[in-house]
Every structure is written in structure tokens, then in C-alpha cells.
Design goal:
It comes from Epilithonimonas ginsengisoli. Keywords: Membrane, Transmembrane, Transmembrane helix. 61% of the residues lie in helices and 4% in strands. The chain has a three-stranded parallel sheet with strand order 4-1-5. The protein has 457 residues and is mainly alpha-helical.
Length: 457
């Protein structure tokens, strides 16, 4: 147990300092949108994103006075709470610690995105659904708490509806296949109460903003080209792999070849996980594992399909966070149940923890040094209402890597590490009221702060 406690502490510390070595501190375009919404509270002006994550950011901002630190301490607090809860409640503590070493947890809790809070709530939802399905408890308190958590997940990400629908599909199967009505009654009551809450939030949005989920604010989806369908399918399949999540931005043959190699690994991992899932039928927790797999599959497919009809980013580690967590958690629980030793899984987890850290920080940059350059420049742009990145391309757009063994170099463009993106993220963090623009559509250019006006050496 001691080695898991040490690993848990190491994960927390690593998570906390990780973004200090990213050019923009782990704040990207969506993070700026959440900061902007948070500054408008308690009088929000848009429902393009739900209010749950901005509300949490605003709460931490009131303590720390800066949105970078608000996001940082929110993420760290959630990690600590999960680990302490798991330890003291004896809810799969070893499995939870190893879950933290996977690509999803390390990613979503290291940067300013809503998926961190979404996964945090998902973990507690699984805890209470486990009580209903495994412990077979008749406690209405557990059902009520699970319902509130489900509603909160929807207020953090609208894709929470796919978790809800997946649980609904599982409950329907349970209704027709199982004779024990205790579990079924608990699940039906959960769906009813959380469904009422979700409907209430949608009505609030419609009455306040004139739309249910900001559908009138979303642009038209981009043309569905075969290459994007392939990339989306590859990204969805990668939800299976707990550790490897490479997603090159290039559409070159070399890039696609790498992704197809990753797909082969994903297939192998899926078959391996499936072997353990089949063993779950021998346990009293089979329904819980079936629920985890149903959420993972239902969420992944629903998000994939909806992505083709909405203007959202392609499927990747971030988008598949909930699916990956459910599959990996199920596997870890069953692995510890049926494996005589934990040495292999522990070593694998430690290896990929180090690998992920080195990969994500392959070009470490001092965030605070970047911020110290931008911050003194911002007061003279206080009158600006919009922020647009017009620093694209240029000599520094490509990063050159040297491979010692074969003595070759190659170049790669890191989309979030471009100087214009870095300036945009830092400027938007310092002044969260400024609205970042995807396109330069504002007619009065005097209201726009162009990133080219900011100096970053």
C-alpha cells in the first residue's frame, strides 16, 4: 500500500508543476472562453458552454485573484479529493491511483479545460451507481446523490447527456433481463430525478438565452471529408488505450501510418480488456462493469456521430476522456481481482507516467517568463474588447527534432505552441474579459488587440 501512497503523492506534485513548463501554462482557446464566462457571473450572457465549470473557476478566482491559479488549484484540489475519498472510503484505492497514471487523467487535470471537472464528477457518479448495483442498497440517499451528480455533469459539459442516455440504455437491458427489482427501481428513480434536473437546466437556458445548448451560436460544421472521418474513427478507437494517445495534426502518409500503428495497439488492448470483462460474469459486480462498458461505448459513439453535425474538434484524448476512464477503471478492478501480483501493472503505470511527462514536456518552456513579458504590455490595451491571433506561420512555426541513433532531423508544427497562440492565451488569462476571435470579423479594428502588437521573445 505504501508504494501506492507514494505514487499518488508523486502524481499530485507532477500534475501541479506540469503546466509551469508549457508555453501558455496549459491555457488554450477553450480555457479563455471559460474564463470569459466566469467573469460575467452571476450574470452570464451566453450558453455556448454550460455554467458548471466557469462557476467553479469563479469560486477559486475569488480566493486566488488570477484565473491561471484558479484553474491550477481547482485541478489539484479535485485530484486530492478523489484520492483521499478513495483511500478513506476504501473504494478501489490502488486501482484509482493507477487510473491517475493513465493518459486521460494526466491530461485533463493538467490544463484549463472542463473535462477535468467532468471526469471528477464521473468518478463519484460511478461510486454511487456501484452502491446501487453491487451493494444492492435500497437507500434513496444514494439515488438522490447520484442524480444530483448526473445533473452537475450536464452543467459542466453538454455531452453529459450521452452518459445519461448510456445509463438509460443499460437500465433498459437490466429491466428486461434481471428479475431482481431492487437494482431496477434504483436505476429508474435515478434516471427520473436526473432527467428532471437536466430538463430544468435546458428550460433555464431557453428562457434565459433563447436556446437550449447555444445551438444558435455554433457555426456550421466543416465539410465532412473522408480524411476527417478516418481521423475521427482513429481518435474514437484510441479511447481504448489507457496510455498511448498520439494524435499528429498532419495528414501526411507518415502521420497516418503512425496513427494506424496506434490503432493496431488499440485493437490488441481491446482484446486484452475484453478477456477480463468476460471474467466479470463470475462476480457480483458484473452489472457495474457492464455499466462502465455501456457508458464508454455509448458516450464514444454518440460523441463521434454528433461531431459530424456540430462544429466541435475532432475525436482525441480530450473528447474521449469519459470513455477512456470507464474502460480503464473496469480493467484495473478486474486485473487486481484475478492477477496474483501487481508488479507488472505497477511498473507499466510508472513507465508510462514518466513517458507521458517527457513526451508532453519535450520542449520545456518557462511559462512565468513568457507571462512576465506579456503582462506589462496589457494595461495599454485595456480598451480593447477583442483578441485575435494574426501571428500564424513564420520561421518559428516548425519545431526541429534530432534523432541521435539514426542521425536524422524532422520538423513538426505544434499547433498550441505557436507564438501567436501563446500570446493569445497569456493575454486572455491576464484580461479574461477580452473575447478571443476565431476569425477577424470585427469591422472596427480599433477594438481588436492583434497578437502581433504583443512582444514575446
Amino acid at each position: 500500500m505504501v508504494k501506492y501512497i507514494v505514487l499518488a503523492v508523486f502524481v499530485i506534485v507532477l500534475n501541479f508543476i506540469h503546466s509551469f513548463f508549457l508555453p501558455s501554462g496549459g491555457v488554450y482557446a477553450d480555457g479563455l472562453s471559460y474564463f470569459e464566462i466566469a467573469t460575467d457571473l452571476p450574470n452570464p450572457v451566453t450558453d455556448l458552454f454550460p455554467l458548471g465549470y466557469p462557476a467553479m473557476l469563479r469560486g477559486f478566482f475569488e480566493v486566488f485573484g488570477d484565473y491561471f491559479w484558479a484553474a491550477k488549484f481547482l485541478n489539484t484540489t479535485m485530484l486530492v479529493v478523489i484520492l483521499l475519498f478513495s483511500y478513506f472510503k476504501r473504494f478501489y484505492f490502488k486501482e484509482t491511483v493507477l487510473l491517475m497514471t493513465g493518459k486521460t487523467i494526466l491530461f485533463v487535470f493538467s490544463i484549463a479545460i472542463s473535462e477535468g471537472l467532468f471526469v471528477f464528477l464521473l468518478y463519484f457518479l460511478l461510486y454511487y451507481l456501484n452502491k446501487i448495483l453491487v451493494e444492492n442498497r435500497k437507500s434513496y440517499k444514494d439515488v438522490l446523490i447520484a442524480s444530483v451528480i448526473m445533473l452537475m455533469m450536464f452543467t459542466v459539459r453538454y455531452s453529459g447527456i450521452y452518459v445519461y442516455l448510456s445509463i438509460g440504455a443499460f437500465s433498459a437491458i437490466l429491466f428486461f433481463k434481471e428479475k431482481d427489482r431492487t437494482q431496477i427501481r434504483g436505476m429508474i428513480l435515478f434516471l427520473f430525478l436526473s432527467g428532471l434536473g437536466i430538463a430544468g437546466y435546458l428550460l433555464f437556458n431557453h428562457n434565459t438565452f433563447g436556446s437550449f445548448t447555444g445551438e444558435n451560436l455554433r457555426g456550421k460544421p466543416e465539410e465532412i471529408l473522408p480524411i476527417y472521418i478516418v481521423r475521427d474513427l482513429l481518435g474514437t478507437a484510441n479511447a481504448i488505450d489507457p496510455y498511448i494517445g498520439l494524435k499528429p495534426s498532419s495528414n501526411s502518409m507518415a502521420s497516418l501510418a503512425v496513427q494506424f500503428v496506434v490503432l493496431l495497439i488499440d485493437v490488441f488492448v481491446f482484446v486484452y480488456f475484453l478477456r477480463y470483462f468476460r471474467k466479470a460474469k463470475e462476480t457480483n459486480s458484473y452489472h457495474f462493469h457492464a455499466l462502465l462498458w455501456m457508458i464508454a461505448i455509448g458516450y464514444a459513439i454518440s460523441l463521434l456521430v454528433s461531431g459530424w453535425f456540430q462544429q466541435i474538434e475532432e475525436m482525441n484524448t480530450r473528447m474521449m476522456a469519459a470513455a477512456n476512464v470507464c474502460l480503464f477503471f473496469s480493467f484495473l478492478i478486474l486485473y487486481f481481482k484475478y492477477s496474483a501480483s501487481d508488479k507488472l501493472i505497477f511498473r507499466v503505470a510508472c513507465f508510462f507516467l514518466v513517458f507521458f511527462t517527457l513526451y508532453s514536456l519535450k520542449n520545456p518552456v518557462n511559462y512565468f517568463e513568457n507571462r512576465n513579458q506579456i503582462e506589462p504590455q496589457m494595461p495599454k490595451f485595456n480598451q480593447k474588447k477583442y483578441l485575435y491571433n494574426n501571428d500564424r506561420g513564420g520561421a518559428d512555426a516548425m519545431t526541429t527534432y534530432y534523432i541521435p541513433i539514426i542521425k536524422k532531423t524532422f520538423q513538426y508544427k505544434h499547433t498550441n505552441n505557436q507564438k501567436g497562440d501563446v500570446k493569445q492565451s497569456i493575454a486572455g488569462t491576464i484580461n479574461p474579459k477580452i473575447k478571443w476571435l476565431k476569425y477577424d470579423t470585427i469591422k472596427d479594428k480599433s477594438q481588436v488587440l492583434y497578437t502581433s502588437e504583443l512582444i514575446l521573445k
